[in-house]
């Protein structure tokens, strides 16, 4: 190609569609893919609005976006040349290929048939992030930000309205013989496990009452720690994008906007009760103080205050939990030990994507509860797809993050800093959670990772800047 010829930029609409898909995933695809057969397909307009969707619904939309983008030469150029050096494409391709090879020998074809297509969409999300890094980022940030804000609002509503109301209704129903419920409502509560039949008497499920009393919120996602993951992933980039935008606004508008966003995200994280989420958030604050130019002169002081204050709050809030021996941490150690043992059983191909629960049923300690996933995305790869699959996943995440952090030395805008800190924090949470298997988190997280890995040659302009993004060296 003539070096003086003008490169035709890729159209901007794919970024808007990707933002809409990621936003819908946050709102509707918040359950693990291995539970796909337990999530019914929406049948009525009310179901589409109020109920979660099975992951296969979102997969078709993501695939449709890829097919719509396929004829666009600018998109292919952005994907082909977006990662430099180009060997950065090798780890995700090797990981995906090994997942398919491992699936041939799976111990549970049903679980693998639900998991393998999802893992393919995770790789697609990464590629779409690479492609959209050369477009205006505002549509993606807008879709993700609005959906996350709604999720956090729902979490606040759960804590202040839904959970107290539901608990009071169950307690009053038990006391009054369920006369405040219709027969169909009682049947639904029995079917969902809210009411147990004991000695021919309906009683409120004590486990449900305990859950409603503790009131750990989860928003639109499967459980509280997943909500914490969304806060870790999205809040830093949302704050980084909003901060420069508010600099020209009136003071009361600026401080109102900058108070609402941290307030929603912070209360969601606090009320989620996620201990790992809290500790990772502290580490993210320290990292931000270390890399933001305006804070570098104060970074030691900020780090000391954040670490001392944050750890003090953590210990005070979780004194009872720590005194009981950190039961959830102990359970995770049992999951991880079983994952290592399962890897040793089949070190070459693993047991098949999404199948941890099968070897764990044999290997777990007698007193341990059953678990479907390892609660560690990295160990899950070794258990499910063997040492080659686990190493390929580590190489993928590690190389992309290494490139992103190395390029950050040259300076980035506040929203790019937030993108980097948030994505790193979410990937760190993968050491104790299963976000890779939740479409809402995995698609967003790996689209952000692809965006970061491809952003080395982009100017760090604000996302609302109307100027064209450079495609130099494309």
Instruction: Compute the average pLDDT.
Output: 84
Q: What number of domains?
A: 2
Q: Profile the largest sheet.
A: 2 strands, antiparallel
Percent in helix: 55-70%
- Overall, the morphology is globular
Alpha-carbon Rg, integer = 23 Å
- Element pattern in H and E: HHHHHHHHEEHHHHHHHHHHH
Order of strands across the biggest sheet? 1-2
* Count of individual helical segments: 19
Strand residues, percent: under 5%
Number of strands: 2
Task: Give the end-to-end Cα distance, rounded to a whole number of Å.
Answer: 11 Å
Structural class: mainly alpha
Please characterize this protein's 3D structure.
By secondary structure, the chain is an all-alpha fold. The protein folds into two domains: 303 residues, no CATH class; 54 residues, no CATH class. Helices cover 66% and strands 2% of the residues. It is built from 19 helices and two strands. A two-stranded antiparallel sheet has the order 1-2. Helix 7 crosses helix 11 and helix 10 packs antiparallel against helix 18. The chain is globular, with a radius of gyration of 23 Å. The N terminus and C terminus are likely disordered.
